[in-house]
Amino acid sequence: MSQAKRLSGKTAIITGASGTIGAATASVFAEAGANVLLVARDESKLAAVTQTMPASQVSFVAADIATAQGNQLMAETALQRYGVIDVFYALAGVTGPMKPLTDVTEDEWDTVHNVNIRGMWLGLKAVIPLMRAGGSIILCSAGAGVIGVGLCSPYVTSKHAIIGLGRTAAIECGPKQIRVNSIAVGGVESPMLENYSQQAVDDITEGAATEANPFLARIPEGRFAKPQEMARAALFLASDDSSYCNGSVLTVDGGLTAS
Ligand SMILES: NC(=O)c1ccc[n+]([C@@H]2O[C@H](COP(=O)([O-])OP(=O)(O)OC[C@H]3O[C@@H](n4cnc5c(N)ncnc54)[C@H](OP(=O)(O)O)[C@@H]3O)[C@@H](O)[C@H]2O)c1
């Protein structure tokens, strides 16, 4: 089979697929031959993203993955439209507030955890029983899932929890011939990173104008990633190229967490 068609005959679900990384991943998965169901809440954004992709392979469903109903709708839609589920990439995530943990409100904490970790668990509950053997599940963690980062405790704790969820799921799903791996996504050129960096700069400088990016300074590679670089890492985990990877955490961060 050619490298370009590594997902030929497979069906993939991607949550958070209208976002920067999700849209790039949907495109790479479709190019690799997969049928792809894109999931997010905002239907108009999903429609805009899918417009550039082949309609015979790519479709979307609007669903809130923070709810059990949303995840059920997602899984059942994939099965109805494509007949099988081979790949589940749980990518949807939110960053939440940047402030000392003592100032985080209960609502702020719950909002981040409801999407990033509780929603992901609900997604696994909905999808795992419907996946066929040989499947691959990918959970989106972050650099903040393997190291501490000040001023974003809801996000950091949710991204750490994802790695624990992935390892547990890997043990439980192995006998079903379904692999589960996490990606610790590093900084990607994206609105999410821009907002985050700006908040950090504002906090460090207390409003003084500066071009310095506190995250960039920590990356040995000296640059943020293109969304396609994250998509290609996900393609590796989605495809049979990673057939003996289970319970792993793939860091794709230009060396951010190496030290
Ligand atoms: N960008 C980075 O530098 C970076 C770094 C490390 C990790 N990550 C992680 O990578 C993932 C994607 O990042 P990104 O930059 O592509 O983010 P993004 O552009 O903000 O996209 C987020 C996606 O998640 C969806 N989403 C949010 N809440 C949802 C919900 N309750 N139900 C369904 N969909 C929901 C959004 O669509 P709707 O709002 O329409 O629902 C959107 O499609 C996140 O998990 C993030 O934590 C990103």
Characterise this structure.
- 41% of the residues lie in helices and 15% in strands.
- It is an alpha/beta fold and 259 residues long.
- It has a single domain, classed as Rossmann fold (3-Layer(aba) Sandwich).
- It has a seven-stranded parallel beta sheet, with helices on both faces.
- Helix 1 crosses helix 7 and helix 3 packs parallel to helix 4 (106-127).
- It is globular and about 50 Å long.
- The N and C termini lie far apart (38 Å).
- Residues 15-22, 40-42, 45, 64-66, 91-94, 115, 140, 142, 185, 187-188, 190-193 line the site of NADP nicotinamide-adenine-dinucleotide phosphate.
Q: Give the strand order of the largest sheet, numbering strands 1, 2, ... along the chain.
A: 3-2-1-4-5-6-7
SSE pattern: EHEHEHEHEHEHHE
- What integer is the average pLDDT? 94
| Global Rg | 18 Å
Query: How many distinct helices?
Result: 7
CATH topology annotation: Rossmann fold
Measured by DSSP, the beta-strand proportion falls in 5-15%
The description of the largest β-sheet is: 7 strands, parallel
Helix percent band? 40-55%
CATH architecture: 3-Layer(aba) Sandwich
List the helices and strands and how they pair.
Layout: E1 11-15, H1 20-31, E2 35-40, H2 43-50, E3 58-62, H3 68-82, E4 87-90, H4 106-127, E5 136-142, H5 153-173, E6 179-185, H6 191-205, H7 227-238, E7 249-252
The chain binds NADP nicotinamide-adenine-dinucleotide phosphate (NAP).
